[in-house]
Specification:
about 130 residues; alpha/beta; Rossmann fold; five-stranded parallel beta sheet; 7 helices; 5 strands; globular
């Protein structure tokens, strides 16, 4: 499964508050499963940290494989972006890159934002 940035943001908030919430519970229930994040998610998430070298950021990302953008992801991105523009259903480019990564690698996308990401044809979505 590929985690959307919204999952990491929720996880960070829950850790900071000292209380387990939906993101922590969902991740704990799947601790034996391989979970990954797009390199785009790493960038989006790290943007929220004043120090991108912080231990907290490293710790929060340490349990996830980082999936790169490669040729197949770029081609899926191009198709999705063109299709969404033509259908007047455009969303942010980073969201399209993350969705393209999930589709290219055949991974469901875990997100709290199923409404927006649900506009992307061919994307399998998991919510928590």
């Amino acid at each position: 499964m590929l985690l959307d940035t919204s999952v990491l943001i929720d996880l960070q908030r829950e850790v900071a508050s000292g209380r387990s919430g939906p993101a922590c519970a969902w991740l704990e229930a799947r601790s034996a499963q391989p979970l990954s994040v797009s390199v785009v998610t790493v960038g989006e998430f790290a943007e929220g940290f004043a120090d991108v070298e912080s231990r907290l950021l490293r710790d929060l990302l340490s349990g996830f494989e980082v999936v790169p953008i490669d040729h197949s992801v770029a081609l899926v991105y191009a198709r999705l972006s063109r299709q969404m523009r033509a259908d007047n259903r455009r969303i942010g480019d980073n969201d399209i890159w993350i969705a393209a990564t999930a589709i290219a690698y055949g991974l469901p996308l875990v997100t709290r934002d199923a409404r927006r990401m649900g506009r992307i044809a061919g994307l399998s979505i998991v919510t928590y």
